Amino acid sequence: MEKITTDICIVGAGPVGLFAVFEAGLLKMRCHVVDALPVVGGQLAEIYPKKPIYDIPGFPSILAGELVENLMKQIEPFHPSFTLGERVEKLDKQEDGSFIVHTSEGTAIACKVVVIAGGLGSFEPRKPAIASLESYEGKGVTYMVRDPEQFRSKRVVLAGGGDSALDWAIYLAGIAEELTLIHRGSTFRGAPESAEKVLSMAEEGQIKLLLKSTVTDVQGDGKLDAVTVLIDNETEYQIETDYFIPLFGLVPKLGPLEHWDLELEKGAIVVNTLDYSTNIPGVYAIGDINTYPGKLKLILCGFHESALMAQSAYNIIYPDKKFVLKYTTVNGIQELS
């Protein structure tokens, strides 16, 4: 079991969680960020990295993925640490008022403040309706690509028509022994340049492409060894494979947070707008996961909530110090050593 000690544990590595690292860093507070996704950026990175965003101050237009990159550069001076690909499961409050946050993989984060910046909640994969699919999870069926090397020299079947499916098809084609991309439509939903690349690779024989096709069954003896594909609602076709990766997007769910004794309203966490604290002292909620009168689910609102949260958290981390607002134009950015 890995044990990590920090000032603030931030649950959620989306844009609001990343900006919270910046606001905390300005006040000399260390942060450790946990996210169930294998990459930082939340929805921006996983669902629509190439989608333009128009309401970030100072940027008439910025791609979602570029915004994540900029946020990561902005927090570099504060050296945050990350636990990715692990879902937060349990919150234990200690006698001294501090917390231990436990993840699905056994990581324990000791901290004085917990900040929930989980967006719409923890993201879980949208699974296709295949009767025996779950029995092969971890045995050839996976819903995310965490380590591409896992698929080196293996036979891989991908399913999906969005950016994630296209990007991984292009990337894994150079790693897998054989790669097949299956899409139920005749055109792709992803970026046009990615779609053109996939079509070109299919023509050159680098990947196998089956359009207007659906995986209807999975087979194997304790481990996946084949999938059945229905082509054009007429012909069944079996493909021998080592891995099946359906990439049909992610579904947000509050998950284990529902059992943390937080005050909830319609699936969101109720907060005090004075500092975005929850009903549990030392636990804050910022971004789309919280609710209050007049709430707007906008990234820029989450940025504002991060700033007020950090000022309040400072009083918990440094109870004997008086908070003094210092403008970065005067004080600059001082690295945490």
UniProtKB/TrEMBL annotation:
All residue ranges annotated as the FAD/NAD(P)-binding domain in the record: 7-293
Subunit structure: Homodimer.
Family matches, as SUPFAM superfamilies: FAD/NAD(P)-binding domain
Cofactor(s) required, per the database record: FAD
HAMAP family: FENR2
Catalysed conversion reaction: 2 reduced [2Fe-2S]-[ferredoxin] + NADP(+) + H(+) = 2 oxidized [2Fe-2S]-[ferredoxin] + NADPH
E.C. no: 1.18.1.2
Pfam families in alphabetical order: Pyr_redox_2
Organismal lineage: Bacteria, Pseudomonadati, Bacteroidota, Cytophagia, Cytophagales
Binding site for FAD: D35, Q43, Y48, V88, F123, D288, T329
InterPro entries: FAD/NAD-bd_sf, FAD/NAD-binding_dom, Fd--NADP_Rdtase_type_2, Ferredoxin-NADP_redctase_2
Protein name in UniProt: Ferredoxin--NADP reductase
Family label: Belongs to the ferredoxin--NADP reductase type 2 family.
UniProt KW keywords: FAD, Flavoprotein, NADP, Oxidoreductase
Details of cofactor binding: Binds 1 FAD per subunit.
